[in-house]
Amino acid sequence: MDDFRSAGNAVHGARRIWVPLVVVGVLFALTAVEGLAAKALPDGEALAAGTVIEFGSARQVAVQVGEGWTLDESASDLRSRLVLVRDDVVMQLSVIVFSAGRPDGVREIWDGMAQTMKIEEYRGTEVALGEPAAFDTKWTSGGLQGSLQVETRVGAVYVLPAEDGAQAVEATVLGPLRPDPAVWDAAIAVVDSVAFAGEEGA
Amino acid sequence: MSGAPPAAAPRVRAMDVRSLAFWGVIAMSAFGLWTLQRNAVPAALAFPPSTALNLAVLLSCLAVGVWLARRVLRPVQAPPWSGTWLALMWGGLAACGMAILMNGRLLSFWSKALGLEASGAWSAALTAPLNEEAAKAAGVVMLAAVSTRLVRSAADGLVYGALVGLGFQIVENFTYGFNGIVMAGGVEPFAATFQTLWARIVLTGVGSHWAMSAVAGAGIGYLVSASGRSAARRVRVALGCFVLAMAMHFLFDSPLPGGTAGTLVKPLVNFAAAIAVYAVVRRGFRARWAAVSHEETAAGSLTADEARSLSRRGARHRRLRGFRSGPEREAQARLQRLQLALIEERIPERLPAEAAEPWRKAVAAARPAG
């Protein structure tokens, strides 16, 4: 097979037209196939009432989920983040590990979270974060909570620091303007169940 | 003033800006830039000190990486700057942008298909080797289609693959510098970016994207070069190199072996694999160079002294320093450049020796009288 002639490179003549087309086509085809494969599977897994999920890089945080919640598997990552959905309320729980430097109190954690929300603002999303107020749960103390509005969705955000100051859980709950109060109460119950390993309840 | 008339060197361009592949690289890079900026620009605006650190560190790494790739990875002489920039642009923008798009979809698939426990551990190792290696290797194929002169040997493929991987690595590190801030909850953002860059450059950078893509690129260079080997063999070698690059990536992202030792050892294994491929490619290139050099010495295009000094950068410089600075040295430098071009022209084995006749004539015309 003389596929070089005088070029010294096999991609010559008509191949210089169809080879780049095939290369780009293969990349987009791969993207499409992967997208279709992901869409072919159900988005989430309905959780039984009382399910306890452990997450974080060392599964160091536990949360108990009540009835009616679905775990959004494509948006969740057990190493760092859980996304739970019930009706039109979406709750995200994120484990934050302060490996680069410990915060000087829970207010610094709150300010850091507020600064990361600015990323969304610079992206053009309307974000309004309220002033923080003290918030304790069954298993954590010294936390903060505040109101949160992202575009037309309203809700609250919670910062729950671990006792050792080396990590925290940030929880956001967002829903429509007038959510079902029962769903809202269920979301608060999930936040209330967050516990760090080594603490009572974990 | 020099009395030597300018030699009639054949005018060849390493890059054909009228080619479809050239505009394909530009269009895909623009698409990648658009994809990347949607996340990177808001993060950069939200954390300006981290952005400054990210830019300062990564631009320094880019400068050092480009210098090393051009100086070390291509035997005899560096690849043309036009190919260098195209390779970096494809890796940093087109491949990185496509990888973000593809990875999001495949990671979602693994989360659903494997469950969160298994996907948390293995999804990166099952996703990146396929998507990212394909996106990066595509860049070397595109370069081969931009011009028939850019990729003409496995050595060309290796250095362009390394440059594509370097561009990818730099831009990926830039985005990870911001991801580190988000993972740390926005607390101590400067330190979080520094920590991320330290881990990704100092601890694991030696065996990351540049090494994997260099291996895949060497295979593509071998596939498209007129090396005189059968098409079946060239396809086998190219596939073998691509699978090796994917295996290196799988190892890099795999949770096994874990711990600090695993994190440190895996990049070293990849580095060793890339160096092994480089050694084989370099030996083949130098053997071909020596054969052509011998033939051209016999044909009178090179003297034995010139042939000995031509294949090494240091020897070329030393030889030039043996001439008085000024017109005499300039004439010798010009002769040396034409001789390099002549030998490079003959590196593809399937090209007939007579095809290089215009270069021989240019060398003869450039040789100073006496």
UniProtKB/TrEMBL annotation, chain A:
Name the domain of life: Bacteria
Query: Keywords on this record?
Result: Membrane, Transmembrane, Transmembrane helix
**Record-annotated membrane-spanning stretches:** 17-37
Protein name, please?
Uncharacterized protein
From TrEMBL, chain B:
Note the InterPro entries from the entry: PrsW
Q: Where are the transmembrane segments?
A: 20-36, 43-69, 81-102, 198-223, 235-252, 264-281
In which domain of life is the source organism classified? Bacteria
Keyword Transmembrane helix in record: yes
User: Which GO MF terms does the UniProt record name?
Assistant: metallopeptidase activity
Please indicate if the UniProt record lists Hydrolase as a keyword: yes
Question: A single Pfam family, by name?
Answer: PrsW-protease
- Keywords noted in UniProt: Hydrolase, Membrane, Metalloprotease, Protease, Transmembrane, Transmembrane helix
Q: Which GO terms describe its biological process?
A: proteolysis
Name of the protein described by the UniProt record:
PrsW family intramembrane metalloprotease
Tell me which species this is from. Glycomyces albidus
